[in-house]
């Protein structure tokens, strides 16, 4: 059996974190959840992840700012990690805005959990 893929979920809503965890744990992904962009950077300093689900609107450091900081990391593997934006304000952004920030994809709230799973699988490939 192959090792579980590690997903870092950055989201300030406990409800969304719990639902996302349940969906991804069912598919045997290993999940770590944090509440803001600063915590994302702290977790990345401690461990490797295969993918980040990044809420755009978070306290302390938002998802765009955090993504730019990740893309600027000196570790090339960590700097290239796939990052999927999660946002309720997608109308405020274009896919071009997300791409310029370094995001690979986005999902809009309210989350469609089938789409969440297929998007995660698209970026992580088969387990």
From TrEMBL:
Residues carrying 4-aspartylphosphate: 55
Any one GO molecular-function label of the UniProt entry: DNA binding
Keywords per UniProt: DNA-binding, Phosphoprotein, Two-component regulatory system
Domain Response regulatory: 6-124
Matches recorded under SMART domains: REC
GO biological process: phosphorelay signal transduction system
One Pfam family of this chain: Response_reg
PANTHER family to which the protein is assigned, alphabetical: HYBRID SIGNAL TRANSDUCTION HISTIDINE KINASE J (PTHR45339)
Name listed for the protein in its UniProt record: Response regulator with CheY-like receiver, AAA-type ATPase, and DNA-binding domains
Source species of the chain: Echinicola vietnamensis (strain DSM 17526 / LMG 23754 / KMM 6221)
């Amino acid at each position: 059996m192959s090792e579980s893929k590690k997903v870092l979920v950055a989201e300030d809503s406990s409800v969304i974190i719990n639902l996302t965890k349940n969906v991804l744990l069912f598919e045997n992904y290993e999940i770590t959840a944090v509440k803001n962009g600063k915590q994302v950077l702290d977790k990345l300093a401690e461990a490797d992840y295969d993918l980040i689900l990044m809420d755009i609107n978070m306290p302390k450091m938002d998802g765009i700012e955090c993504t730019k900081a990740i893309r600027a990391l000196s570790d090339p593997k960590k700097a290239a990690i796939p990052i999927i934006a999660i946002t309720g304000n997608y109308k405020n952004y274009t896919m071009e805005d997300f791409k310029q920030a370094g995001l690979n994809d986005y999902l809009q709230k309210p989350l469609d959990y089938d789409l969440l799973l297929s998007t995660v699988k698209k970026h992580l490939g088969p387990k």
